[in-house]
Amino acid sequence: MQVSTKDFSSLKFGFVGGGNMARSLIGGLIANRIEPHAITVADPSAEARQYVADNFGVEVDEANEAVIAASSSVVLAVKPQVMQSVLESLRTSLQASSPLLISIAAGVRLNEIDTWSGGGLAIVRVMPNTPALIKKGVSAMYGNCRVSDQQMSQVDALLKAVGKTVWLPNEDLLDAVTAVSGSGPAYFFYLIESIEQAAVKLGLAADTAHTLATETAVGAALLAATSNESPQVLRQRVTSPGGVTEAAIKVLEDTAVGDKFVDAIIAGERKSAQLSQPKIAD
């Protein structure tokens, strides 16, 4: 997916954390003609720093402060449980340079990031998902009132480098997104696992079962994504009366598999909301 570089021309990107999701975003930026020297990555792991330096040619540093000083936009790619300590240690640097902060940490709310970073900064929360690693992700975003239209455009372009994007009307909906698309790949992997197991039980070799299950999933997803018809209509087109598919779907409907999937995603949203409760004392 090619993204216009006009929103990036004067930007310097920094990454606090050089893990898998950070690497996917770095790769997306460079694939869209962002110069590697415009990107600085900090990570406490020498191995992680060496990896991004060798594979992307970006600037690396052990100190997070170096990223803040060098960047107009900073991606916070650290684990949620260490976000507070990382931001509090960077408060002086952040207040001095006032970069746009882009958080990809699940469950850490805007008001927490704002408080820990000293306040007054433009902040966008992003919920990406792991297919971003192959540039097939989908990311949902919400920013605080200090994020300008230009900065929204920049964040949108950054995430479009690794997939599709949606903007949300309020922050609370990020909990629903976490359950639907953040956790969503696991649901599809679960289904692929089950189809593979059935194929093996029916006598197919394991590698054949894997190919059939995964390629069917890829094809069905692409058809659903590109068709003007709903998934329900597409399913009905495959389900001939009295046929093989109808017999299989009847088992799923008799055991309320669809309802269970809905219940599972609602449970995920409730868990995300619970984990997202502010951790800042009143």
Sequence-ordered SSE layout with sheet pairings:
Layout: E1 13-16, H1 20-31, E2 39-42, H2 46-56, E3 59-61, H3 64-70, E4 73-76, H4 83-89, H5 91-97, E5 100-103, H6 110-116, E6 123-127, E7 137-143, H7 149-160, E8 163-167, H8 173-182, H9 184-201, H10 206-226, H11 231-238, H12 244-254, H13 257-275
Parallel strand pairs: 1-2, 1-4, 2-3, 4-5, 5-6, 7-8
Antiparallel strand pairs: 6-7
Radius of gyration: 21 Å
- CATH topology group of the largest domain: Rossmann fold
Number of strands: 8
Supply the CATH class of the largest domain: Alpha Beta
Helix count? 13
Roughly what fraction of the amino acids lie in strands?
A: 5-15%
Order of helices and strands: EHEHEHEHHEHEEHEHHHHHH
Tell me the distance between the termini. 44 Å
How is the largest sheet built, in terms of strand order? 3-2-1-4-5-6-7-8
Large-scale geometry: elongated
**CATH architecture annotation name of the largest domain:** 3-Layer(aba) Sandwich
Which sheet architecture does the biggest sheet show? 8 strands, mixed
Which range best describes the helical content: under 10%, 10-25%, 25-40%, 40-55%, 55-70% or over 70%? 40-55%
Mean pLDDT: 92
Give unreliable regions as ranges.
none
